[in-house]
Design goal:
Blueprint lengths: L1 H26 L20 E9 L14 E13 L2 E19 L2 E3 L10 E3 L5 E21 L9 E23 L12 E5 L7 E11 L2 E8 L15 E9 L1
Antiparallel strand pairs: 1-2, 1-11, 2-3, 3-6, 4-5, 6-7, 7-8, 7-9, 9-10, 10-11
């Protein structure tokens, strides 16, 4: 299913890109050497990228009860290098921070456990936190092959990109809020918070495929993590996916 989805995405992007190029050429066909006269070194083309959206862990066991609005927030600073003879296309690369918040219901994720695998414990019949999440933060390096319908002013036209990103785990912690009994009654103050931090169960690196498509400063983005979220012996195979909104410019 994943292969079909990404094949369809690639075909769609290729068709759209060709139609955009053909449209541009038909309305204002350039001479072969005209591109060399363009100075694109100072153009605004997504040198600053902010992403926010939904995260999910598909196909996980029922014991991992994710729930609520799991989400990500990413921020990158990137360089953009246009192709000399085809400025509709460019390569973007940079560095930034990516964070993910996965929410759970009636589940305790014991990052500090001494067991070989990460425990996901159902706590619906005992005292537990009403709100509970697992947060990870990565230092990330994204690389994109970009297409801009308007190569001179990419922030005023159709754009899309496909790429990859690598990441190094900086932090991992759980956060629980409002400790309640099995009937949902607060045991402490409703604002009571507990945090536990440990990275030993989480894969220290990530590799993901990415894509986005949009117009001007706004795009719809998506990613699929090829590497497993947990270390090989730490639990089930989890490949996070995300979809969201990108704000880019400068």
């Amino acid at each position: 299913m994943k292969k079909i989805f990404f094949s369809f995405l690639l075909i769609t992007i290729t068709v759209i890109a060709k139609s955009q190029v053909d449209s541009t050429y038909s309305s204002n066909p350039p001479h072969k050497n005209d591109w060399s006269k363009l100075d694109l070194s100072t153009r605004a083309n997504d040198h600053f990228v902010i992403q926010y959206g939904v995260d999910a862990w598909p196909n996980v066991p029922d014991s991992i009860n994710t729930s609520g609005f799991s989400r990500h927030f990413n921020m990158y600073i990137m360089l953009d290098k246009p192709f000399q003879n085809s400025p509709h296309f460019s390569v973007g690369f940079g560095i930034g921070i990516g964070t993910s918040n996965i929410f759970f219901k009636n589940t305790y994720v014991n990052l500090k456990s001494n067991t070989a695998t990460l425990p996901f414990t159902n706590v619906s019949s005992t005292n537990h936190f009403d709100k509970y999440k697992l947060t990870t933060g990565y230092l990330e390096v994204p690389v994109e092959l970009r297409f801009a319908g308007n190569p001179v002013q990419p922030d005023k036209g159709f754009k899309m990109a496909v790429g990859i990103k690598g990441g190094f785990l900086l932090s991992a912690h759980t956060k629980g809020k409002n400790f309640v009994d099995s009937l949902g009654r607060s045991i402490y103050d409703r604002n009571y918070i507990q945090k536990e931090s440990d990275k030993k169960f989480i894969n220290s690196t990530l590799f993901a495929v990415t894509g986005r498509i949009g117009y001007g400063h706004f795009s719809i983005d998506a990613s699929y993590q090829v590497t497993e979220f947990l270390k090989p012996t730490a639990g089930p195979s989890i490949h996070p996916i995300s979809i969201g909104l990108t704000l880019s410019g400068l």
